[in-house]
Amino acid sequence: MPYSLIAKCPCCDKTVNNDLNKIKRLFGLRTMKNGNEIPQSYCKVCRSKKCSPTDKRC
Fold first, then answer.
1. How many other C-beta atoms can be found within 10 angstroms of the C-beta atom of residue 16?
2. Which residues contact 49 (CB under 8 A, 6 or more apart)?
3. How far apart are CA 36 and CA 15, in angstroms?
4. How confident is the model over 26-50, as pLDDT tens digits?
5. Which of 4, 8, 42, 46 could pair covalently with 51 via S-S, beta carbons 3.0-4.6 A apart?
6. pTM of the prediction?
7. How far apart are CA 51 and CA 30, in angstroms?
8. Is residue 58 situated within a structural domain?
9. In the 8-state DSSP scheme, what is residue 11?
10. Is the predicted pLDDT of residue 1 greater than 50, yes or no?
């Protein structure tokens, strides 16, 4: 099964598919304890506004 890199913000539904540079710019990456990097769950805009999926402030 091919690997695909996807990031989707649960607050504003912003989605990026298979573009690591755009994911880094819009979402950022987090480093897990095992050293793997994964996209942040929320985009940078929604994280800065402390948005949640229930209030949709973004």
1. 20
2. 57, 58
3. 21
4. 999 999 999 999 999 999 999 999 8
5. 46
6. 0.80
7. 18
8. no
9. T
10. no
